[in-house]
């Protein structure tokens, strides 16, 4: 057998069996159980991995929130509403402002009358003087500092304005304008931004005491306050205390909804931590003071302490008393619940609690606390609106803003619009409209009204009413109507004639005889006088002041209809003027605003300046926006215009507006009544030294009213002056006008003292009386002097 075969056999040979003694029984293998240390390692592994994931998620989410916060805080925190201001009352020697009118303006601005002014916002008054401590304010021409002045008056208005500190006379002194309204766009939030440094310290102290005592210590979230609030709420069985910090409240107000949920609270806390880490405490406090919800003004949410001060007390926050400051902090907890007009006792109790906390914190002594809690809330009158309802005027303002500055202007944040509105004139106009229309509407409830008042010196719109219900927002009759202006055109007919001084003067006889005119289609027109009588001839002044139709048509046809149209156009009439004979009696359609424009030209010594409602606009940084200046144009010769003014004073003295003159016998006023065919339209235009007014009374359906200019529109003006006493016209002599004397029947120039003569102003260039009471000088005598 070979070795190879031997090896194979050995491999195939079975192994020997073990003995029974040595054999071990077989057992099932048991499963291994992990030790407690193994479980701990596994839980730890899972936990730190989850923690890393959560930390990474929170970190990423924090970065996201940080970007949101940064955009808000470092960009534009709020869209501040456009503020619309009234005109700023200017006081200077000779200003047409009376003693009573200044006091009324100061009360409107919230100044307090005292025996002796001791701080900003106070004034005292005697019969001829007003001692005023003016507030600082932003004027279009620059910031105005607080200043104490003595203003002295005489019968003509302001006689002097002097600084109290050194007696220095001031050339001009401005009062702050009235904030008329803020134009809200979008979210309905209204606020008046006030920097933190201008918030009174007691408000900040009280706020921190009441809302967040550890504000300067915590980092946005106060765990101890949260725990304390939780325990109190559990003990009470309901939510009676919150643990949110001021920073958390700010985060909620700025970025989150008021919905209560754990997710929102977590997000609120994260945001508060980020805000506190990124920004200074004072910056956070300023944002809170201007963001916090303080109440509801109809559809507008009142936000921030600055606007709340005006909303509740009608004055700037810097002038609030200590109890009023405490109330602002008190009302934060629940503006509706502590509404002081609806729940005065509840509101006062909450205010007194804030005062007590201040006393306990040694911010007040016992005497101060006692005096404060015994004081009334001192609220503004509930019927005195925070913002004015001026639909007619605001419509004109918005149209002018769009025309001059573009449609997108009001979308910009923080712009300031300074208008020409005179709040006292507006108030007087509204009262006059309500009173007069209430009386006239007893006979005709469909009567309506449109009224425009301008400032004679600035050519600005001082007041506007577009409906017999002044606050009604709808059809603006002051601007939008087009009705025949009737006899209001006559001053321009007579101005055209008087400009020809060699042919016409105020005493020139004018034909009052029947006249029939035919047009190109063969239709005839025979104008009639109101009394249906003809006088043969009447002096020009008589024809004017009595508003006699036929002499006016005869005069107008002589001087030319086209010449009259040119005069009216120069005076500022910008609609088409129909050059027909009927135009001479007012067959020209216009609105109160258009009438005010041309009579403003007469009141302003013949200067045409386009009426405006805006003086200037400042952007968010208080820089003026560029605008084209309004350049005056001498439309009417000043001397001729002077004669027209004189004739208009005679209308009030002894003409169709004589009832107005009797109502104000001590004032020289100018006016003109107007009535269209069939008494469908009642018109009046007039002026004193300060204001020009144009008024229409009629029906929207163009129906008959049974009113004349003197019984309808002039009645509104008379009531207007009753509430706003007129300042007499200053009829100072001007170059080119002399005191002339004329024969009553012929209008021939005479020497003073001649029999049957009348004294009237005349153009110097054409006034050539005889040296005696005989015939006037011939051309040769004029040339040779004798």
From TrEMBL:
GO terms for biological process: cell wall organization; peptidoglycan biosynthetic process; proteolysis; regulation of cell shape; response to antibiotic. Its main location: membrane. Residues 187-356 form the Glycosyl transferase family domain. It comes from the Bacteria. It catalyses: [GlcNAc-(1->4)-Mur2Ac(oyl-L-Ala-gamma-D-Glu-L-Lys-D-Ala-D-Ala)](n)-di-trans,octa-cis-undecaprenyl diphosphate + beta-D-GlcNAc-(1->4)-Mur2Ac(oyl-L-Ala-gamma-D-Glu-L-Lys-D-Ala-D-Ala)-di-trans,octa-cis-undecaprenyl diphosphate = [GlcNAc-(1->4)-Mur2Ac(oyl-L-Ala-gamma-D-Glu-L-Lys-D-Ala-D-Ala)](n+1)-di-trans,octa-cis-undecaprenyl diphosphate + di-trans,octa-cis-undecaprenyl diphosphate + H(+); Preferential cleavage: (Ac)2-L-Lys-D-Ala-|-D-Ala. Also transpeptidation of peptidyl-alanyl moieties that are N-acyl substituents of D-alanine. GO terms for molecular function: penicillin binding; peptidoglycan glycosyltransferase activity; serine-type D-Ala-D-Ala carboxypeptidase activity. It is found in: Cell membrane. Residues 91-175 form the Bifunctional transglycosylase second domain. Residues 9-32 have a biased composition (Basic residues). Residues 1-39 are annotated as: Disordered. In the N-terminal section; belongs to the glycosyltransferase 51 family. In the C-terminal section; belongs to the transpeptidase family. GO terms for cellular component: outer membrane-bounded periplasmic space; peptidoglycan-based cell wall; plasma membrane. The chain crosses the membrane at residues 43-64. Cell wall formation. Synthesis of cross-linked peptidoglycan from the lipid intermediates. The enzyme has a penicillin-insensitive transglycosylase N-terminal domain (formation of linear glycan strands) and a penicillin-sensitive transpeptidase C-terminal domain (cross-linking of the peptide subunits). Pfam families: Transgly, Transpeptidase, UB2H. Keywords: Antibiotic resistance, Carboxypeptidase, Cell membrane, Cell shape, Cell wall biogenesis/degradation, Glycosyltransferase, Hydrolase, Membrane, Multifunctional enzyme, Peptidoglycan synthesis, Protease, Transferase, Transmembrane, Transmembrane helix. Gene3D superfamilies: Biosynthetic peptidoglycan transglycosylase-like, DD-peptidase/beta-lactamase superfamily, Penicillin-binding protein 1b domain. Residues 451-715 form the Penicillin-binding protein transpeptidase domain. InterPro entries: Beta-lactam/transpept-like (IPR012338), Glyco_trans_51 (IPR001264), Glycosyltr_51/Transpeptidase (IPR050396), Lysozyme-like_dom_sf (IPR023346), PBP_1b (IPR011813), PBP_transglycosylase (IPR036950), PCN-bd_Tpept (IPR001460), UB2H (IPR028166). Pathway: Cell wall biogenesis; peptidoglycan biosynthesis. This is Penicillin-binding protein 1B. The active site is at 211 (proton donor), 487 (acyl-ester intermediate).
